[in-house]
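It is worth pausing here to work through a concrete case rather than discussing structure prediction in the abstract. The textbook approach is simple: state the sequence, then state the predicted structure, then interpret. We follow exactly that order.
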Amino acid sequence: MPWKNQGGGPWGSGPKGPWGSGPQTPGPKPPDLEDLLRRSQDRLQAILPGGSFSGMGIALVLVGALAIWGLSGFFRVQSEELGVVLRFGKHVRTVQPGLNYHLPYPIETVLLPKALRVSTLSIGMTLIEDPARRGRTVRDVPEESLMLTGDENIVDVDFTVLWRIKPDGVGNFLFNIQNPEGTVKAVAESAMREVVGRNNIQPILTGARTTTEASVQELMQKTLDSYGAGILVQQVQMQKVDPPSQVIDAFRDVQAARADLERLQNEAQTYANRVIPDARGRGAQITQVAEGYKEQAIAEARGQSARFLSVYEEYKKAPDVTRQRIYLETMERVLGGADKLVTDLGSQGGQGVVPYLPLNELSTRRAAPAQPAQPQQQSGANR
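Step two, the predicted structure:
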């Protein structure tokens, strides 16, 4: 027997060597594998009917395993997700948010992309943490935002793209592109550079922003559809469009001058729109008044001519009677509106009934509404 197995060696009992005690393992001892297996076997035998691996016990174990395997096919799709069910790796159907079921693994599996969420992608700018302001700040990315226009000017364009997955293109989104965000960013930058390169700088800086956004969105959608990316571009928003910082002051002066020119032109056009219709209306009014006077004068002249001819015809039939009638009618028109008194100063020199009439008071009372000097003239005439 070797010396290390001898209980009463020269160094005493136990696993000791000539230098004292052997190495001691610190901490708890690792569990014994055989002991664990034995305990698991005892527990399984206690659960199974009869306490042994009988045919009924094995059947129950299989049924339980199949039930658990079948129940593992239930899954929940969140509100922003769509469930893409794969059967042996092939896309077979797409399910809506809610509780759904697929055949258990490994027959079918499910992928849950955020297909109903609208994602925002910024190009030409990025958000960075600013400890001084305790928040985020925007930092320009010149290599993305500086672009060349059609008239060989440089413009700094920052814009954002709102995109989402097409409801009917989830399979293409998952299997045709590897980096969706990077693909959308590259396509957006390329489309913006192409649209800006076809236009001059002034329309881009002033009134062509909406047209530029629509053109970039259309070009992006066409490119992504050609890739089969399954991505829908909802909107392109231009955040900042400025010349380079070195010449921005000069461009702003030019824009201010153009704005003043447009303002003055609009004011002049507004004044012209107000004055010209007024002048045309007054001219039309004067013309209508003249036409009315013309028609009236012609009608009166024709009426007088017809009257004169009719009177002349009657005059030729009876000259004396017609002459007398004309005289009487003329005197009636002349004296009809005059204020007059008729007295008969006969041979008695105004004596008799006439002196009892208050002629002076009558003439004064009749002339009172007129001028003050008129009664004296009338009374003198009466005398």
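Step three, interpretation. Residues 1-27, 370-383 have pLDDT under 50 and may be disordered. The first strand starts at residue 16 and ends at 17.
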